[in-house]
Amino acid sequence: MKTRITELLGIETPIIQGGMAWVAESHLAAAVSAAGGFGIIGSATAPAEVVAKMIKEIKETTDKPFGINIMLMSPYAAEVAALAAEEKVAAVTTGAGNPSQYMKMWKDANVKVMPVVASVAMAKLLERAGADAIIAEGMESGGHIGSTTTMALLPQVVDAVSVPVIGAGGIGDGRGVAAAFMLGAEAVQMGTRFLVATEAITHENYKNKVIAAKDIDSEVTGLSTGHPVRLLRNKMTREYLRLEKEGASFEELEQMTVGSLRNAVVDGDVITGSVMAGQIAGMIKKKQTCKEIIDELMAETTTILSSAPDLLK
Fold this sequence. Notes:
Blueprint: H1 4-9, E1 15-17, H2 26-34, E2 39-42, H3 48-61, E3 66-71, H4 77-87, E4 91-95, H5 103-108, E5 112-117, H6 120-129, E6 134-137, E7 143-144, H7 150-160, E8 165-168, H8 174-182, E9 187-190, H9 192-195, H10 204-212, E10 218-221, E11 229-232, H11 235-245, H12 250-257, H13 260-265, H14 290-307
Parallel strand pairs: 1-9, 2-3, 3-4, 4-5, 5-6, 6-8, 8-9
Antiparallel strand pairs: 7-11, 10-11
Helix pairs in contact: 2-3, 3-4, 8-14
């Protein structure tokens, strides 16, 4: 399946792996890229030397293109941005800010820029700044979210910009991929589906909690603070929401979650840790390799899209 995104990134399938903190490291990114998708290192708040080590590991594993997700609020954002240019990674995705200050450096190094946005206004702004593609992410996704659903956000972003758009949030199988394409996307970004990949370093407790999740098992914390986060329900989310309802301060609420994502992903604390996952967690029933995930997604998508004309009969 060829689109402007597959041509832009030099990949075989329009499947992009989300840059999930603590989860999206070299093993997962390399496996996704080797399977024909686009693997991404989630740099989160890691310093440049840590990211450089992961880049080296990927290059030793596959010659396929891959990228880096840069959280612009990270204290190491500038040095990781420079590393991306130095290493000439295929693309960067960005979140939590405006990457305009790094655009020229990336362009000079032929690094493609694909910012994650949650609004039409930000999509327009970043297209003007030089973005090569836009990732329109709806509130169904795991982790930090916006306020608009994918089905409402995606077609509006597609209509607002001329660069290709990648749909994200609430996409878990070929039906979701096909729906995103019908809404104008030319690729999809998926995080939750890859959480349980065989190659993901995600702790088995975390993977099993995602697989056991039902459709109603995700909750959003932080609405009162302006920093909403989607997670799977557990003791931590219940306590957080109770304190939030009682008017706890931002500092008190933040203290509850310091290090909690690492605790869940690395140590397997799914009781008091932050088990970030999207609303499609209830659709995930098994662990698979990245190749199995991508092959299954593309088989389902092509079957659905090829049969679309029959719906009018």
